[in-house]
What does this fold into?
Amino acid sequence: MSKRILSFVIVALSVTLSGCNSTAHESTSLVYISDGYVQCEHPPAPLADTAALLQTANVEVLSSSCGQITDMGVIAMCGAGGTGIHLHQIKNTDVDQANQAGFDSIDKLTEQGLAFEFIECGL
It folds into this structure.
């Protein structure tokens, strides 16, 4: 009988402790900036370049990805931009510094009725 109780306690403790990591994701934010692509002129900037902009602003970059804004048409014309964006996961406490460096919270896209998707960098 004591083995059953011990097993129950171990399972209950494991479930309780596994929830401890859930706050780590909640304490971060996803910010984005244009990838700098200009049709006929400039290819997208490397992801490391926009991460460096954040680091220069004393913002720790936790992870980085490439993406594109969906639900938005872009004119096909030399000199026009594109829908490519660079996304960076940062601490919530660094959002204001990221904004000052030219980045916006990903929530701003949804507020504008736009969506985004992650894509492989270099496409």
